[in-house]
Design goal:
Layout (H helix, E strand, L loop, with lengths): L8 H7 L4 H13 L1 H31 L3 H10 L13 H20 L7 H4 L5 E5 L2 E6 L5 H5 L5 E4 L6 E2 L7
Helix pairs in contact: 1-3, 2-3
Length: 173
C-alpha cells in the first residue's frame, strides 16, 4: 500500500484474491480513505457488469434467433432483378449499339473540322508569329514577347483568328 493508497491491490480485493492479513489491511485503509473506497466501488460495478455479460449476450441471441427464418423467407420471396446480359433478345440491340459507337468513332478520325466553325474556335489557341520574311517562330503566350523584343514588325495570328493583329512592343528596363 504505497503512497497512502491501495493501488493495484484494489482489483485483487474486489475479486477476493488477497490473503486474509492483506485483506484486513485493505479494509482498514478503505474505512479511512474516500479515494480508494470510490475506486473499489467502481471496480465492483465493473466486475458485476462483466459477470452479467455472458447472460445478457445469450438473452440477446435467443431473442433474435426466432426472427431469422421469417427474414430469410422474405428475402427469398423478393422479386429478382432481370439479368439482361444473358437475354438472347437483347443481343441484337447490344450489337447495334456497338456498331453505331464504332462507326461514330471511326468517322471522327477521318472528318476534319470546318474552318470558321464553332468547333474550330473551341480548341486551344496557338500563337504563330509571322513576319514579312515568313514564319519566324511559335509561342504559346499570346503576346509574342520574343519577336517584339527584337524590334521586328511581326504580327500575331492565333489559331482561331482570321485577321492578324500587331504584337505589342515590350520595353525592357
Amino acid at each position: 500500500m504505497g503512497s497512502n493508497h491501495i493501488g493495484s491491490l484494489a482489483l485483487a480485493f474486489v475479486e477476493g484474491r488477497l490473503p486474509s492479513l492483506e485483506h484486513e489491511r485493505v479494509e482498514l485503509h478503505l474505512a479511512s480513505c474516500g479515494i480508494c473506497r470510490a475506486e473499489v466501488e467502481d471496480l465492483r460495478h465493473l466486475a458485476d457488469a462483466l459477470s452479467a455479460a455472458p447472460r445478457a449476450l445469450a438473452a440477446l441471441a435467443s431473442r433474435r434467433a426466432p426472427n431469422w427464418p421469417s427474414v430469410r423467407s422474405k428475402i427469398a420471396a423478393a422479386p429478382r432483378m432481370r439479368d439482361y446480359r444473358h437475354d438472347p433478345g437483347m443481343r441484337p440491340a447490344f450489337g447495334l449499339a456497338l456498331i453505331v459507337i464504332l462507326a461514330m468513332a471511326s468517322a471522327s478520325l477521318f472528318v476534319s473540322p470546318i474552318q470558321g466553325s464553332a468547333f474550330a474556335a473551341s480548341g486551344p489557341a496557338l500563337a504563330v508569329i509571322r513576319t514579312p520574311a515568313g514564319l519566324t517562330g511559335l509561342t504559346d503566350a499570346p503576346g509574342g514577347a520574343t519577336a517584339a523584343a527584337a524590334g521586328s514588325t511581326a504580327t500575331l495570328v492565333l489559331g482561331h483568328d482570321q485577321t492578324p493583329a500587331p504584337i505589342p512592343t515590350v520595353r525592357q528596363p
